[in-house]
Amino acid sequence: MLEINNLHVSLGTTQILRGVSLSVPKGAIVGLIGRNGAGKTTTLRAIMGLVKAREGTLSLEGTDLTRTPAHGRTRLGIGYAPEDRRLIPDLSVEENLCVPAWAMGVKDVQPRLEHVYRIIPEAREFGPRRALQLSGGQQKLVAVGRALMSGTRLLMLDEPFEGVAPALSKRIAEVIGQLRGEGLSVILSGADLQHAGAVLDQVYRIDRGQMLN
């Protein structure tokens, strides 16, 4: 599904990623583990097209992502939930969920929404509430659902368990586990992915912008 080879990324004059390579098979759930500042977020942002690759290749089922703009990558079926969630506070939960589909101009918004509600029934319950009325953990759950609205082939979750109460961390892990039967490839990043240990097919470790395995 996703292949990254010898990826180098610099932010300004600082080199962040140094030859990162990883592979995510179709339908696999892969962990990317590293301490803060190790390069996890930059790797996900490079896949999403939010930072530019200076060197190396990224491909999604044969499509060269380095030649595809960020909005084009979303249209290819890549969904991304950043660590800070980035929900729009004054919009309802349902509106937040629909934003990616509206932005892409897709015609199957309602079926996509129903798909999210099937996997995350809490999101339907939260639907009319404004995003700012949710707890941090609830917002994380909604952010996963929002990423699913566009992530029909590859879903990337950055620090999904960070700052989340144990009960909600367990629930997020359950949701991620459900995706195994959807044929969806998933990348989880975190300093500690113990909550997702049971669902991970493979783990990559990164430190100082380089892979350790």
Automatic annotation (TrEMBL):
Q: What keywords is this UniProt entry annotated with?
A: Amino-acid transport, ATP-binding, Cell membrane, Membrane, Nucleotide-binding, Transport
SMART domains, from UniProt? AAA (SM00382)
Q: Which part of the chain is the ABC transporter domain?
A: 2-212
Q: Name one Pfam family in it.
A: ABC_tran
- Gene3D superfamilies named in the record: P-loop containing nucleotide triphosphate hydrolases
Q: Which SUPFAM superfamilies match?
A: P-loop containing nucleoside triphosphate hydrolases
Q: Which InterPro entries match?
A: AAA+_ATPase, ABC_transporter-like_ATP-bd, ABC_transporter-like_CS, BCAA_Transport_ATP-bd_LivF, P-loop_NTPase
Q: Which GO terms describe its molecular function?
A: ATP binding; ATP hydrolysis activity; branched-chain amino acid transmembrane transporter activity
User: Tell me, which GO biological process terms does this entry list?
Assistant: L-amino acid transport
Q: Which family does it belong to?
A: Belongs to the ABC transporter superfamily.
The protein's name in its UniProt record: ATP-binding cassette domain-containing protein
What is the species listed in this Swiss-Prot or TrEMBL entry?
Answer: Aquabacterium soli
